[in-house]
Design brief:
EC 2.7.13.3, 5 domains, 25 strands, 6-stranded antiparallel sheet, 5-stranded antiparallel sheet, 18 helices, 685 residues
Length: 685
Amino acid sequence: MPETVSAMLSAILDLTDDAILVIDPPTRTVRFSSPRAIELIGPVLLGDSVPVSQVFANDEAQFDDFLRLARSVTDPIISQVLLLPGREVVTVKGRRMTASDDTSRVLLLLEREAELSHRFRLISERILALRTEVGRRVLAEKRLSSNIHALRRALGAIRNIASIDVSTDTYLQEAVTLIARDLETHGALLVLDELGRLHVGAATGRFGGILAPKQTLNLSHADFTRTWARDPKLARDLLWTSLTHASGGALDPAGTLAIPVSVSGAIRGVLICVPNAEAAPGGVTQAEGDIVAEVLGNLIARAETEARLIHAQKLQAVGQLTGGIAHDFNNILAVVLGNAEILLEEITGPRLELAEEIQDAAIRGATLTSRLLAFARKQPLKPETTDINALLREIDPLLRRTIREDIDLELVSGGGLWPGRLDKSQFENAVLNLVANARDAMPEGGKLTVETANVRLDADYAAQHEEVRPGQYVMVAVSDNGTGMVPEVAQEACTPFFTTKAVGEGSGLGLSMVFGFVKQSEGHLKIYSEPGLGTTVKMYFPRDLSGNPVPAPRRPDRAESDTPRKGRILVTEDDPGVLKYVERSLTKLGYLVDAVTTGDDAARLMARNTYDVLLTDVVLPGTMNGARLAAIAKGIAPRMPVLFMSGYSENVIVHHGSLDQGVEFISKPFTRDQLASRIAALIRA
């Protein structure tokens, strides 16, 4: 305000009898005051540019609202103020006063209550309340408009994220790019857990040229989540320290928004956005970030679920294929192995070595098909109540012969271990396979541990793992400190014929056999591995709650082929080669044998003759399968034992992967000694 105008205004105020103040709103100071105002308020107004806080006791925000309204309207506005020092309530009229230099001041007229009528006070109060409400509503509308804009952005991001194809390797990058675009940010970064450490999952915008995909941060997932639960701000600081280090100091956390990303209820990582205040009024809100982070977590969960489903379907398809091939191959091997065995007894000279090679090849083929059937879950199991600690101690010498001298094997038996229900023979094979794999993973020696423990798998764990039922399990873990596996290899470790070993060093069927056996036993298999640190394979077998006593240790079967036997046996087998081999072997053992290829023919023979044993294939042509034939046999001769044979068994004698109670079974291919032992045992019984 020019000095001449200021002098004139000061002179005018000196002549008035009213209590008048001139306020400068930008500086919140009293620039001029009349003598009546000085008398009313006190000598504090004698100074130059007196702060309004030394004159009025009102709330600063309310007083500023009053000044703003007074400057924005042409008519005077009325309110009430509190004067210092005694907090006297007086009425104030305020109006805008514009100088020639366009500076806007507010002129205040102060009047004590007695100077106004009661009606005028009521009117002024209502006007003030109305104007305050108008201001509040204007502010609320601005906030609502901002929230609507944020909601529209979030809905757009949700819609676009939901349409992403999660089967591609780039789905995370695509999701983060969409988030950065739809939320109108300067950039977005997704940090995820992998093998216990945080790494860059995807980056775009400001982060894109600084951080590389899959770049590992020097912060563990466990440390971050524990800190987040206790102090989210400290967790963000730890994360940014790691990001700053990884970027070489090129990243600045100022103004960023970090939101945890949860997958299946557990924090898996963090989404970081750099708001763009110009493009997005108010920036990215916390609520907006929370919504998008939740959708991103659901996307990751969907991708992992679909990946597990595809992997399971692939394993199922491979299992069906290999199971069918193995069944037919076992019939062929039964003929080859059986006739090679007969040749070994009947020939001499150079041809004997050829027969031995044929027998060895057939045995290797039988081992291969056995593993394929185990993976396909079509190998009949004979589960029984088992003390797993005792069984491991029993096979401990065999395990030690499997490893080298530079490997330290430790058996850690869990105390009070629950009994399990499993096929002991297949369990031994599974442990031997895992120990052999651990041995091969430690070419320079190391530590190998076989551990048992009681565990409970809860509903949360089951929700994250396919085919797992919550409950009590007996865990058997085989751990090594060898080379370990990268995640891509660990994911395929149970696929048949998948191997990282050199040609001739492994078939790639060891873990697939273990996987199939555990699944067929209604258990669960979990692989934990990290490159350079080692691998742990955990087998979970359901706790046996039947209360059955643990059977006594087994004794090896005695060779029966050299002991002459008496009895009459009915053999039913649709494969002519297998039928001839079985008939020839049993005849050589001293039995009388009737051999037929169909169940109907066998039923007619049983109606006319008496037999000591019925030996039948499970799968027979026509409507008369092995199970139906056995039922007819029990009707004709209730005390006659039935021995089933098959390359693998369908559900005619197997339910849930286990043999029905009381069923006797021999797997093809078998040797004459094995067949002799089973037949002799049945006749003795």
